[in-house]
Design goal:
homodimer, alpha+beta, Ubiquitin-like (UB roll), 4-stranded mixed sheet, 3 helices, globular
Chain lengths: 131, 131
Amino acid sequence: MGVETLLDAVKFDADGLVPAIAQQHDTGEVLMVAWMNRDAIAETLATGRVCYWSRSRKSLWRKGETSGQAQTLVALRLDCDGDTLLLLVEQAGVACHTGRRSCFYREWQAGELAVIAAPEVSEEALYGKPS
Amino acid sequence: MGVETLLDAVKFDADGLVPAIAQQHDTGEVLMVAWMNRDAIAETLATGRVCYWSRSRKSLWRKGETSGQAQTLVALRLDCDGDTLLLLVEQAGVACHTGRRSCFYREWQAGELAVIAAPEVSEEALYGKPS
């Protein structure tokens, strides 16, 4: 059976999108959350490289296309009510546009949002612009 | 500073909600995704027990109130653009209403959605109704 079987099981929202969690497959680290539409899911499964839908640019977003920080798909899972995807990935380098491994680098501690991870690379190195 | 500092940093959607990923703090297992509003976040931080917002019931949803499968908050993290929460939790029993540990129990394998985890408890045991 083809990818249509999967797409039929996904409950897309009114904009035709579904949130996708990217998790590093071996360490379990939650890296980021982004959105996928039908085309992004189909392309990801066809190529093995994770492709999202950029809501701001309104176009397919091949993760790492600009920065080189691509995600190779290891497994794709769907939750019980079909409205969230979990992508197990091999993350090349960092996932966050700030140069941090994970986008979840702020933690509520003692009444303030503490920064719990430092950038591993500069935004300039990722995108060729000053950070 | 109080919880208002955190709430001001969260970008709630048009319905006043933000998605929250629950992850078992020590194993890294992604358990479920649900929604929180300002009151749910404030109650969770005040009590240390995770409280979501039920979109279907339009009320606060104290996870485990019916089933006993509560989540104790270990840490609350916010992503780079402020529109997704990551809750590190200690999950009592199972997270999924189907009796499975995680809601992400279906995986796309060889052209079909394979069920990769069995229920650990019956829905009847969780909710007092036939499964």
